[in-house]
Write a structure and sequence with these properties.
Distance between the termini of chain A: 73 Å
Number of strands of chain B: 47
Shape of chain A: extended
Largest sheet of chain B: 22 strands, antiparallel, barrel
Oligomer: heterodimer
Distance between the termini of chain B: 52 Å
Radius of gyration of chain A: 26 Å
Strand content of chain B: over 45%
Structural class of chain B: mainly beta
Largest interface: A-B, 78 and 66 residues
Number of strands of chain A: 19
Radius of gyration of chain B: 26 Å
Order of helices and strands of chain A: HEEEHEEEEEEEEEHEHHHEEEHEEE
Number of helices of chain B: 6
Helix content of chain B: under 10%
Number of helices of chain A: 7
Largest sheet of chain A: 14 strands, mixed
Structural class of chain A: alpha+beta
Chain lengths: 322, 748
Amino acid sequence: MKKIYIKTLISAAVLAIIISCETGDSTEYDEQLALYCYAKADSTIDSLYLTRTGEVNESINLENLGVSGATVILYERSPDDTIFTLAGNLSEYADRRGIYYMNETDFTSGFKAGNTYRIEVVHPDYGMIHAETVCPPELADITVSNSATGAEMASLTEDPSAVDTLYYRRGESFDDLELISCRFDSLQILFENRMASFRIVPDEICRTDTSFWLEDTTETVWEDYPIETQIFKDKKRYGSDFMDYYLRSIQIYWYALYHEGMHTVIFSSTDKVFRSYMEARYGGEERYTNVVNGLGLFSLSNSSAVRSRYRVYVKSLENKYP
Amino acid sequence: MKIHLFVILLFLSYIQAAVISGHVKDSSSNEAVADVNVYFDGTSLGSATNINGYFVISNIPQGKQKFVASALGYKLFTKEVIFERDQSKKVEIKLDPEVIELEGIDIVVEGEGEHTEEVMNIRTGQLKIKPRDIKTSATFIQPDLFRSIQTLPGIVSVSDYSTGLYVRGGNNDHNLILYDEIPVYNPSHLFGVFSTFITDALRDSKLIKSAYPAEYGGRLGSVLDIRSRDGNKEKFEGNISASLFAGEGVVTGPVFGGGFLIAARRSYIDPILEMLGDEYPSYYFWDGQGQLYKDFGTDDRLIFSTYLGSDNLEFNQFDMNMGWGNDTYALRWRHIFSPKLYSNSKLSYSSFKINMDAFGSFKYKNEIGDVSLKNTTEYFAANDLIYKTGFEVQRFFIRYDQEFAGTELMDIEGNYYIYSLFFEGSKTWNSKFTIKPGIRFEHCAILNDAFRLTASPRLSLKYMMNDFSSVTLSGGRYFQNLFTVQQENQSLQIVDNWFPIDDSVDPGICDNASLGYETTRRIAGGDYKFTIEGYYKYMQNLQNWKETTSATDDIIEEMVIDSNFVNSYAHAYGIELMVERQLGKFNGNMSYTYGKVVKTIDDPYEEADEFDAHWDVPHSFKTSLNYNINKKWSFGTIITYSSGRPYTENIGYYTEILEDGTENIVPVKGERNKMRYPDYFRWDISANYTWFYKNGSKLLLNLSVLNLTNRENVQSYIYDERDEDDTVVKDVFPMLPILPSIRLSYTF
């Protein structure tokens, strides 16, 4: 009997050694470049962020990871052309490491719907990365109605002085409160696998910080409501896989909004890569990238037309926070 | 054709003579006892009881015979029986439970005749779990069937927080879980922390780890067959128990000439949570189990059984209401056409529903319903020849809705049907060699108006090397038409969402085989069973949720599996060694398992590399030991030591810049599942003290401590916290710390 116990103990010890050997192998880390560039039709590139990846245990703020000294070139190709032509070179801001821009004078035409654009980044330490996308067309046939009154709202194209008033009840209006009802050519979006999006931007007078969204989610007001504010920050976007939303109501989440005053509602369409990026972002940890040999996103949207902009006066029905 | 076969079987059953048949029951509870050896001493005539405790022995010679019934945990039953020529006897045998607190009395299989049952009963990869063992072992707050199963060889648990079962390399949804023959889809409470069934209301449970017979179908891996207690038709008895988390009660007794059982359980932490305020969620769950049966003569029994359970979570801070649970109902009819022809029919309904409202704008609903009509007929042609056949018609209802701020993200609804037919046979030669072939046909009318016909052959072989040792070989092809949403980067599923396959993908297929050797040896006065089993599985058409599928931007209106899931396949193989002593003062088991699961995702956008599945645990050492000092005191210990599970390491980071300039830190992932968490170790202990009262009642005090060494086992790593140097801190999300628990159980 004693022998059995000794054998058992020895076997257990051997097993423990075997088991503890199973730790797996670490994967080799390769430093890569990441490029982020969001630009709008008819505009130039205001900010192209060029950063590198950081290794585990390395400081990861944007300043540390910004990459200077790269040659960044924008190429353009119209649907009729077979080859790209040079559109211009980007320069790095003198006081912002790793952030590049293109002078308006170098790119007077701006991004044109239907054209393909390619950004090439060459850096002596990292080699070349590049990304391509097609500038999307603007949303077609937009009509917007004030859901409270049912009246169709005039875009700034039709009437530069038109203003509609939207009322919200803070704290209660997070529920499905319909403020605006919008109609646009969803079939076009559907067939081209793009997305439609809208955002509401306060006028300068309402804005006390550089970002409206950040301003509205300051910790002083929203420290107790982190999840709600996060949802609020996710701007409403519509996918393109379904047919039944030709007429679609838009609910704006006023829960976290406490700006009364003049705002602009902007409707825009995105390119295909942005749609893929958004899908991946919600779907898992892996991010979609259209950057070859690197990471990040080069995306174009089209909200340049004035007719996709509406002026609204946002008014609260009560003066209290939720 | 089927009707003709039935008539022939019926006719044959009447022309045989000198037959003894009947049911074997537990004398104290009147519950049926399965797998009892019944034989005539000194002859090769014998059989074993089926799951309902029924047996038949035929071709009995005229004259006086010594009838013997033996089962582990029961006193040996013997009786002299005189048989006339062509006589047919119906009997009801009651076995007295062995009092385990007394000196260890071990039943040893020896002498001629006893092994007859052994050779007929092919048990490769089968494990039986008795409620008695669950209640006295170390428990996580509540005695739990699924947690007890997790301590057995070949079973992997991915978390202390989950009752999920990963059996022999199969995924969590590859297990067919049957409660009184009713399929149950998500049998867990509190997001998997507890399983649903009330232990005191269970009779026994059998886990067939792989290569299961043709009477079961619809899953790739294993079968967990859980049987509730029938109810005592002779006297009232019951049990009340209370733990730190929940209280439960069971009452059983005679009614309308039959028996009933009612069991209920409810957690009671919700008043405490409510006192803590809105910052904490309010949560409770409840279960109800019921059984009612009545015998009509000696040949018919009608049984109604039900399980109802619900979880309820409220979180006022997030305006969240969440409710989910199972409802099952079954009406079963057992009929003995003749001593040799035994039939069991069932009409059942099972559903799982989950509803959630949150943030005032998010709505989520998932429902799976299953209505089933099934019949199984056994024909005991001879002592060494049994036929079994049956059919099943199942209608499934699936609903899956998601809505965000009035926008529908998912809207799936549909019915589909599966028609099954199976045949099985079991033939023994010379009390040495048994072959058990079977085949199961399934006609699956899947969504999108398509259908598939599948044939799953099964085969089991057993060879008795001597009275104490046997070799078994089992295998077959298995299909699965329902699956749950699986993500490789999520080891802890909160709730399983079931989907039926459609015409865009093929059903899951598993080809598997297992080979086992089993021997019983007497060492130092005790009987020890040594088992060694190897298995191999090749699993195809496993569906994984596409990681690039949007959860908020697309509406999914049709069940197009192909567009939302990616196909994968996997190889699983392993070897299990176990030594077990079931009786005596000192009993329990020790096991070692080597098992691998290597998976490949067939994603057109990714290179198809092999990787270890997230439940791949190559080495696993488990031991569960009990020591009964005397009638009052007993002690138990469970030790688990296993390899760490694989995970995908974050090897770096980069800054993602959103459209509005916001920065996010995004990890750079290493190779999929290349790294492993530290090896897992947990040592649980328990002590039981029983007070016996003059009126026959008793009070059991169970004290247990989980994770006695307070080892920090890793559930996962959390990376997204930044320290003052702007570096990402890798924090451990731990599994359970040291956790003492107390439970009182009063039986009357």
